[in-house]
Amino acid sequence: MKHTFLMALVMALFMVGCSKDDDGHSSIRLKVSTTDNTTSSRSNTIGKRNENVVFTDFRISIRDVVFKNDDDPNSNLDTDEIQFRGPYQIDLLDGGNALSQTIGDAVVPDGRYKELRFKFHKDEDLPATDNLYDRSIYMEGTIGDQPFVFWHDTSENLDVGRSTGVDVVGGTVNFTVTFNTSQFLSALKEIDLTQATDGNGNGIIEIFPNDQDGNQNIAKDLKDNIKATADLINQ
């Protein structure tokens, strides 16, 4: 009887394992990274002025990642399910060097995926000393010899995708959201960061939605540019 029970248990486990492999589900491994694909934008006057701008630290806080299918009305893929709830604090630059961070693997129905959506999320549960406390985007750098700090507390959605879609069938597929740092000052609007001022004279150029240095308009444009540089690749 013991042998019979053990054999039945082994067979049951084998069948469960097979069913997981054949149930029409695969997985997406989500990564977030930065890249520096320099464009010709620096050939213009504003671009030349920004040549002394250096980004040394770039972080974002996100939540509620959703993978969206090809919008086929006959598809049975659930595009409303949140695969990664978060929040996630993601460090994307270290001393100016690009970083990549893996969020995790999400099991999804087999299919063609064209888009993912996540929400910038300001996390109030972090220690107040954390640079991302109550902020969703944070950046440090220098403009010439003067340090600057930029942050924003936007809670907007960001959609990134590929028009051709990516087939996710029979395994794990890498999805990487990349932010192109070389376009932070030019993606939607040309920003001359050398025009940012240290209005309160504390030695740091502060660029916030409510800063006291007079750089609020730059803060909005920089936030919009950062969002516009996001792209989705699979590799």
TrEMBL record:
A Pfam family of this chain: DUF4382
Residue ranges of every copy of the DUF4382 domain listed in the record: 58-203
InterPro entries linked: DUF4382
Name this protein carries in UniProt: DUF4382 domain-containing protein
